[in-house]
Amino acid sequence: MTFAWKAAGLSYNRYLAIAGRAVRRSLKEDKRIVAERRGNLDLRFSKWENGKQGEAKNLADAQTAVATEGASA
């Protein structure tokens, strides 16, 4: 038996992000604002080639670009 998130075509990390956002949105106003601030992340990554670091890119932007390419293909 497969997990529902896997059957829906989501990665486990994406499933957790969606579940966390749903929980944060269900909180009362004062707690929700604090929780939403904690939920915002700015992750960056770089590819290393031949011992040199490449350009640092925002992870969210890169994921959006990949998703857009996959949808148009």
Description:
The protein has 73 residues and is mainly alpha-helical. The protein has 2 domains: 1-40; 43-73, no CATH class. It has 4 helices and 4 strands, in the order H-H-H-E-E-E-E-H. The chain has a two-stranded antiparallel ribbon with strand order 1-4. Strand 2 (48-49) and strand 3 (52-53) form a beta hairpin. The longest helix is centred in the first third of the chain and has 15 residues, at 12-26.
Helix content: 55-70%
**Tally of alpha and pi helices:** 4
Give the percentage of residues in beta strands.
5-15%
Q: What is the overall silhouette?
A: extended
How many whole angstroms does the radius of gyration measure? 16 Å
Low-pLDDT runs of 5+ residues are none
Count of spatially separate domains:
2
Q: Which structural class do you get from the secondary structure elements?
A: mainly alpha
- Total beta strand runs: 4
Mean pLDDT: 83
What can be said about this structure in brief?
With 73 residues, the protein is mainly α.
Offer a few descriptive terms:
two-stranded antiparallel ribbon; 2 domains; two-stranded antiparallel sheet; 11% strand; 73 residues
Please outline the helices and strands.
Blueprint: H1 4-7, H2 12-26, H3 29-39, E1 44-45, E2 48-49, E3 52-53, E4 57-58, H4 59-72
Antiparallel strand pairs: 1-4, 2-3
Helix pairs in contact: 2-3
